[in-house]
Amino acid sequence: MPELHRVLPALLMSLLPAFCMAEAKVETISTSPACKTATQAINEEGYVDIGGIQQWVTIKGRHCSNPVILILHGGPGNTMSPYASSIYGAWEKDYTVVQWDQRGAGKTFGKNKPDEDTPLTVAQMADDGVALADFLTRHLGKKKIILTGSSWGSILGVQMSVSRPELFHAYVGTSQVVSYKANQASSYTRVLSLAQAANDQETITKVSALGPPPWSNPRNFGILRKAIRKYETQRTDPAPKAWWVSDPAYSTPEALADYEGGEDYSFLKFVGYKGDGMFSKVEFAEHATRFAIPVFFVQGAEDLLTMPEITRQYVDSITAPHKEYILVPRAGHDPNLPFIEAQLKLLNERVRPLSK
């Protein structure tokens, strides 16, 4: 879901085509098979033609024989490509990790520069994700891949898993978004309750002034999000500061402008000018409870944006070959060390065996 803070970027990541692993700058990722041998490392980044536009993708792993994980970032608009090496670098030993700057975000936003009237829909972006997953199976020589989505990315993840299950070994949802109505209402009530218990008059005044959701003013979501972050910070372990130091390639004035432009564009499409944005269409309990693949949900116990009880109710309603719900103490909505460690433990112990 939208991150309204700005993180200043810092680490160097080189562009190494998978064929010879020699250092070279590339603009597009080849459509040809990338892996010549099972033991070959892969390190590619560039644009892929997806949904009629060029979209930015990075592919990194130490062995082509490893399972492939496609990570769907949150926001919308909060790409993880600038921070992937810091947060997910350790995963590359046992997985080929794929980051994707979604339509309207990061380098994909910069490449295509949509104007504010260019539409953005969940269906369109889920179709993009399916097209990318299909490309990855062919490019990396895999029958299926592992899909994981966080927050906004979990909206796309559910849609993709339901529509094209044959592409995926399993789906892992983190900070899963379930319902426009239920997620917002529960967050509003909980934050107001915490503020009242703390006699936090400033937050009480600001949040009470919004009134209960749904809202027609797009600024209201941002006001609530700020209060959520305040109280999550008090109840969770902080993420390592080094995680949010970006690769220098994403720290140029142009790259920073593209990141921020994508955030602004995507946020408005998410909430809508009158509360009628992409988020308002999300009600998974009504139309996305039957999965043909195993599904796993990792939830921060202190998440105030996608509340644990809402996710738990949704998981209980799901029919799937296998389903699990993992609650992580001292974790909130955004990633921190306990959250990332819990995800990797789940992948290694429960999900990886499904890829064999």
From TrEMBL:
It comes from the Bacteria. It holds the Pfam family Abhydrolase_1. Keywords: Aminopeptidase, Cytoplasm, Hydrolase, Protease, Signal. The keyword Signal applies. GO terms for molecular function: aminopeptidase activity. InterPro entries: AB_hydrolase_1, AB_hydrolase_fold, Peptidase_S33, Pro_iminopeptidase. One of its GO terms (cellular component) is cytoplasm. Transmembrane segments: none annotated. It is found in: Cytoplasm. Residues 67-336 form the AB hydrolase-1 domain. Residues 1-22 form the signal peptide. It catalyses: Release of N-terminal proline from a peptide. GO terms for biological process: proteolysis. Its EC number is 3.4.11.5. Belongs to the peptidase S33 family. This is Proline iminopeptidase. It comes from Undibacterium pigrum. The lineage of its organism: Bacteria, Pseudomonadati, Pseudomonadota, Betaproteobacteria, Burkholderiales.
